[in-house]
């Protein structure tokens, strides 16, 4: 037994325990490191994981409760809609029993009102077209007048020199003088 105990205590059989240094055996060190990292993750991550799962559970439960409330509201709305449908069906039966004369009368009134509206719209359309035509004609007239005026001014400026200008002024003065003598 002394041999067995001595072999565990003795450093002769454990060559790696003789001195401190770097262990270059990658496989042995990776297994040790991975087991340490996994142990730390499990130890410290268990609480975080439990919190995440509890939060998720609460959200799922609240979603289920909301869905149940929505389902109850939908059932109530469905019942109201069914009640309203029964009421409308009874009113429809009542209208059928009373006859279609009121419906026909309303139909004729609606047709007449629609015809009147269409006639008014047609008149409005005609007035609008006439107004737009007049406006377009006036715009064209203004453009033609402006172009003619610019053309005439261009022609006068290109043809008019100082001598011609002096002769036109003299002729106009003589015409004015002759008009003055006639009026006196």
Short descriptors:
mainly alpha; disordered N terminus; 4 helices; 184 residues
Report what the structure shows.
There is one protein chain. This protein is mainly α and 184 residues long. It has a domain at 38-135. 88% of the residues lie in helices and 0% in strands. The protein is built from four helices and no strands. The longest helix is centred in the middle third of the chain and has 73 residues, at 26-98. The radius of gyration is 54 Å and the shape is flat.
Secondary structure topology:
Layout: H1 2-9, H2 26-98, H3 101-159, H4 162-183
Question: In terms of per-residue confidence, which ranges show pLDDT below 50 for 5 or more consecutive residues?
Answer: 1-13
End-to-end Cα distance, whole Å, is: 167 Å
The profile of the biggest β sheet is: none
Figure out the total of helices: 4
Subcellular location: Membrane; Plastid, Chloroplast thylakoid membrane
Transmembrane segments: 26-49
Protein name: ATP synthase subunit b, chloroplastic
Membrane topology: Single-pass membrane protein
Brief description of this entry?
The chain is mostly helical. The protein contains four helices and no strands. Mean pLDDT is 81; it is low at 1-13.
């Amino acid at each position: 037994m002394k041999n067995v105990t001595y072999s565990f205590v003795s450093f002769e059989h454990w060559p790696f325990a003789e001195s401190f240094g770097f262990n270059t055996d990658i496989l042995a060190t990776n297994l040790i490191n991975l087991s340490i990292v996994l142990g730390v993750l499990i130890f410290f991550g268990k609480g975080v994981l439990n919190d995440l799962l509890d939060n998720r559970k609460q959200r799922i439960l609240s979603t289920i409760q909301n869905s149940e409330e929505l389902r109850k509201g939908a059932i109530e709305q469905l019942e109201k809609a069914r009640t309203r449908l029964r009421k409308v069906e009874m009113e429809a039966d009542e209208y059928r029993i009373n006859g279609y004369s009121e419906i026909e009368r309303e139909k004729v009134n609606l047709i007449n009102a629609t015809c009147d509206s269409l006639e008014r719209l047609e008149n409005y359309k005609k007035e609008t077209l006439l107004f737009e035509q007049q406006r377009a004609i006036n715009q064209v007239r203004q453009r033609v007048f402006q172009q003619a005026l610019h053309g005439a001014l261009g022609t006068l400026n290109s043809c008019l020199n100082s001598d011609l200008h002096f002769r036109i002024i003299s002729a106009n003065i003589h015409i004015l003088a002759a008009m003055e003598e006639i009026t006196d």
